[in-house]
Description:
Layout: H1 9-19, E1 25-33, H2 53-70, E2 74-80, E3 95-101, H3 104-112, H4 114-117, H5 120-126, E4 127-135
Antiparallel strand pairs: 1-3, 1-4, 2-3
Helix pairs in contact: 2-5
Amino acid sequence: MQKYINANPESGKRFYQDFHAKGKIVMLNLLKFREKADYTNFSEIKPKDEIKGEEAYQVYLKKTLLELKKAGSRIIYYGKSNNFLIGPESENWDAVLVVEHESVLKFMEFAQNKDYLKNAGHRTAALEDSRLLPSTEIKDYS
Length: 142
């Protein structure tokens, strides 16, 4: 089964094309943590002691929060999860994170910021699998 941790160039291009003129973007993150964080490719940020994937993600969030705020973004919700009420029984997620970004450009500036990037390895070390679904608000749904 294929795992998804980072965007690929094609999905990044589609994201920009589909959302660049839409204003605020809300990102739904579905997160599956590793039992033990894997810092194989991130020795420069590896903690002294072994930690769980969920702990590594907490480190990532704490180190990322300031950069999110600088970009005008905010965490709307972060909570534990497990099985779908409606959805495939084969997919289980440990947590849900919902983040609002002012725009695609602000999100891309954030995602390419050197201060963010030096800590993004905590996210990669933490996750076994993830999904990231961008959305824009439907203002007229009556």
